[in-house]
């Protein structure tokens, strides 16, 4: 969802497309590979048997769809802002320099990928986010997820700094402060929680009946 939004917005704003087709393939490989598979190994929540049964009218698909779309929108906005800032700082809108575009694309896709790698830790439980769990719960309760995210982070750093990857993907190495900026724009992924999108159908039915 985020990739579609970013490309569409860039076209409407008459900017260069932020992602090449090979970048989208890379993003899917890094974020939908090891981390997604490892998430299936997550242990059940401790209080799962104490939770109340869901309302029969509860729409899981609708709620998940809203959550995914909102999370994708936040990711797209953050990456596009970073993309624009990089293009402006490198003078692309004046010179149309290829190097400036390559750096902006590197920062945009890196921000989107780091966002999703952070975001996966908040997709483990409806009620508890990364800030509500202990270090052990976050990183040791599912070692497959920790290793999967670590592996994807290493792959993304190679994508940024390895000359072989730079040639294949047309990316540019980033300065440390630029990498720090990428991480900063990816941090919203650490704060989005599924419970924000829970719909209290019992409350809605009471309002209608009154």
Task: Note down, in words, how this protein is organized.
It contains 11 helices and no strands. It has helices spanning 2-12, 21-32, 34-39, 60-89, 92-95, 98-119, 135-140, 143-161, 163-169, 176-186, 201-209. The protein is mainly alpha-helical and 210 residues long. Helix 1 packs across helix 4 (60-89), helix 4 packs antiparallel against helix 10 and helix 8 packs across helix 9 (163-169). The radius of gyration is 19 Å and the shape is globular. The protein has one domain: Up-down Bundle (Calcium-transporting ATPase, transmembrane domain), CATH 1.20.1110.10. The longest helix is centred in the middle third of the chain and has 30 residues, at 60-89.
Helices and strands in order, then pairings?
Layout: H1 2-12, H2 21-32, H3 34-39, H4 60-89, H5 92-95, H6 98-119, H7 135-140, H8 143-161, H9 163-169, H10 176-186, H11 201-209
Helix pairs in contact: 1-4, 2-6, 4-6, 4-10, 6-8, 6-10, 8-9
Characteristics:
210 residues; 0% strand; 11 helices; disordered C terminus
Helical content (DSSP H or I, runs of 4+): 55-70%
The helix tally amounts to 11
Separation, N- and C-terminal Cα atoms: 39 Å
CATH class: Mainly Alpha
The profile of the biggest β sheet is: none
